[in-house]
Give the backbone structure.
Amino acid sequence: MKRLMLIIVMICGTALFAAAPASAHSELVSSDPPADVTLEFAPIGVGLVFNQDINESFATISLIGPGDEQWTQGTATVEGPDVSVLVKDGLPNGQYTVGYRVTSADGHPITGTYGFSVDVASTITPQDAAAQQSQGSAAPISPTPTSATPAPAYDPNNPSASEDRPPKQNTMMLLSIVGLAVLGLGAIALTLVIRGKNRQ
C-alpha cells in the first residue's frame, strides 16, 4: 500500500514539473490596433502586450500594407511585457498585417501575425465647402476707368472764371489793369496841365 502511494506521488510530481515550463512560456495578451478591426484613422504606432517580460535584444515588429510596403519606422521599444514601434505618416486605406517576433525573458521565442484595415473617409468641413464655393463664384472685378475732369477754360468776359484760370493768365490780366490805370492817370494829368496853361 505504501509502495502504491509512493508511485502515485512520483507520477503527480513528474506531471507538475513537466507542465510548469510549458505554462511559463510567454504569449501575446493584447494588441493596439486590435486584430480584425477597421480603423477610421491612421494609427501612429503598433503596440503589443505579452504576459511576461520580453528580452530587449530580440524584439521586432513589422507592418506590411498595400503593395507589400513596410510602414514601421525605427526599432521596437521594449518596456517589460510591452513592445511597441512607430508607424510612418500617411498610411493609405487598405489591409495591413502586423508581424512580430520576440523572445521572452526565459529565452522562448514567440512569433505571430494578425491583420487590421484602415478606411479613412475623406470629409470636407462646412467651412471648407463655403470657402471653395465663394472662391469658385467670385468673379474678378475690373476697376472702372475714371475720366479726368478738364479744367474750365478761361473766359475773359466772365469775371468769376478768374479763380479757375491758370496763374499765368491771372498775372497777365493784372498787368493789363495796372497799365490801363497808369495810362488813365497820365491822361488826366496831361489834361490838367493843358487847362492850366490855357488859363494863363
The longest helix spans residues 167-199. Residues 100 and 112 are 6 Å apart (CA to CA).
